[in-house]
Amino acid sequence: MKKYQYLDRYVDDSHWRESLNRLTQLNWGITVLHGGEADYVPFAMVYNNEVVANVCAGRFDLVINGEPISASMIQTVLTDESHRMRGLIRQLFDPVQSHIAQTTGRTFFTAHKDKVEFYRKFGYHSHSLVDHFSWPIQDARQAKQSLVKVDYQDDFQRRQFQSAANRRTPVSNQLGFVQRNWLLFWFCRYFLNNDIYYAEALNAYLIYRVKDDVLELVDIVAENIPTWAELEPYFDCQLLTSVKCFFTPDRLALLATAVMDDNFYFFTDGNLPLPELICLPETQRG
């Protein structure tokens, strides 16, 4: 019978941090810890001096239906293949839930639809999730305004972006995030570093990509969120047919169609108020 040890709050211990990173690299191809993530608390089961099962609780400040809310997202739930079917994740949920109860008192996360019964055992409720909102390009004209591409590898430009993020207004009043930007910065470091642009006249950072003839708007980092009418002149719309927006576009002042996620649900513990349509911004989909 294998003997496991419990471990938590180890982000600043290089051995355990790298052990979790090896596990996430093996399973998902990503690194999750660098040290100093005060709002990202790991809980683990250890065997033979290695992390073999893990659950993290990340703390966030949100705005939901216009009201400020502090809540915790459950993240990085995984078990090494050779240690599965031993109830290790079940054992970790007791300290994770206790930690959340003592801090934010509210829980949310996304998970695959086949996990509904598993998470129901821990008291979590599942809700339909919007993957993105879509609308057609109405005015197929060339861009009239210019964007400056941000070099996220450049220390000065990165600090400017991060400073703006720490002053940001939530991109949505229905479901948006403010402060505690560690997950946003993680996404920018690993996945979005080539997709960040600055619109000087709007004093706004736009995170977007273009796939085929579709503009995919990922996030807007600004103190004043511009409307779509203000944003449209920055894009070469004659080459685009539509927009996919990966956050609720209530502040963009337009009509959009919600496209539901067929594979994932939004889970809560019942203490989190919910908007009518739930679209977790892509830069916060941990």
Structural overview:
By secondary structure, the protein is an alpha+beta fold. The protein has two domains: 1-105, Gcn5-related N-acetyltransferase (GNAT) (Aminopeptidase), CATH 3.40.630; 132-260, Aminopeptidase, CATH 3.40.630. 21% of the residues lie in helices and 34% in strands. The chain has six helices and 15 strands. It has helices at 14-28, 88-102, 116-120, 155-165, 182-190, 228-231, and strands at 5-8, 40-47, 50-64, 67-79, 107-112, 125-127, 130-136, 148-149, 175-178, 196-199, 204-211, 214-222, 242-245, 257-260, 264-268. The strands form two sheets. Strands 1, 2, 3, 4, 5, 6, 9 and 15 form an eight-stranded mixed sheet that branches. It has a seven-stranded mixed sheet with strand order 8-10-11-12-13-7-14. Helix 6 links the parallel strand 12 (214-222) and strand 13. It is globular, with a radius of gyration of 20 Å. The model has no long low-confidence stretch (mean pLDDT 95).
